[in-house]
Write a structure and sequence with these properties.
The longest helix is centred in the last third of the chain and has 17 residues. This protein has two domains: about 90 residues, Udp-n-acetylmuramoylalanyl-d-glutamate--2,6- Diaminopimelate Ligase, Chain: A, domain 1; about 220 residues, UDP N-Acetylglucosamine Acyltransferase, domain 1. It has five helices and 40 strands. It has about 350 residues and is of the alpha/beta class. The strands form seven sheets. Strands 8-11-14-17-20-25-28-31-34-37-39-40 form a twelve-stranded mixed β-sheet, with helices on one face. The protein has a ten-stranded parallel β-sheet with strand order 9-12-15-18-21-26-29-32-35-38, with no helix packed on it. It has a seven-stranded parallel β-sheet with strand order 10-13-16-19-24-27-30, with no helix packed on it. The radius of gyration is 26 Å and the shape is flat.
Length: about 350
Amino acid sequence: MEITAKELAVLLDAKLEGDPNIRVNKLAKIEEADKDSFCFLGNPKYFHYAQTAKAGILLCDETLEYNTANIAAALRVKDPYQAFQKLMEAYAAMSSTKKTSGIEPNSHIGKNSTYGANFHLGSFSYIGDNVKIGKNVTVYPNSFIGDNAEVGDDTIIYANVSIYHDCKIGSRTILHSGCVIGSDGFGFAPQEDGTYKKIPQTGNAVIGNDVEVGANTCIDRAVMGSTKIGDGVKLDNLIQVAHNVWIGDNTVVAAQAGISGSTKFGKNVMIGGQAGITGHLTIADGVKIQAQSAVIRNITEKGKGVSGAPAIDAREHYRILASMKILPQLIQRVKDLEKKLQDK
């Protein structure tokens, strides 16, 4: 698809500098761009490429200096990230792989199950009894939706997704391949003979609207009641959400994080990759948990940043890390002082 700088300026409500008629036909990273490329600069770490890169059109902020000899046109906006998101959304809509409606062969729909207009069901997918599916839903092949489950409008369920019985999925939600919604929580009662007896997990998992769940992420059903994922939550790949966890609206969680049972998060929390959160905690709104942190206590201060294992105030943790660099010298100084004292 070809598009001119002038057309892009209108789409993004951007100030145009340079050749309005320059055409590009592909999106590219700034370091890999050529004269046919549209590229984007928003991170200061990459601003130096504005002087060396060759690109057809550059999307940038209102002040960035760039090499006009190498870049034919620039689109200046107040917030490059928001503008780029808008552009990518338009690009994705034009190149969408969303299936047309219809039921493919070798799929199964159980008794008393219903679905809305423009529903697509891929081959070898299974829908149980009494399932309710909204309109404009796409289910790719080899997926499973258990009895009494519900799926809202405009939701996409990619291949090999499993939604267990009684679980509820909101509207405009995306479930990526391999994710499991509503599997049994990790509940076992120790016995006198050293064995463990399974505690039945009788609840469900409820996922809100506008949620995205990454590939191979698992969200366990509750022991009783519901495991809840709020509206607008974004979960990366390979995340474990245990039984009875509540995740507040617009929270984001990076890959390989693990959340233990019955912990409750406020809204707009950010959790870095490989972070671990123990069970039965309360995490306030806007908390920022750094990657590989181990959270073992409640965080009640809104907007607080924590880091380390165990997690402490992020600024304090960074000061501790900085002091560790001089620890060998300090130890040697102590030894030297002890020796001087002994020699007296």
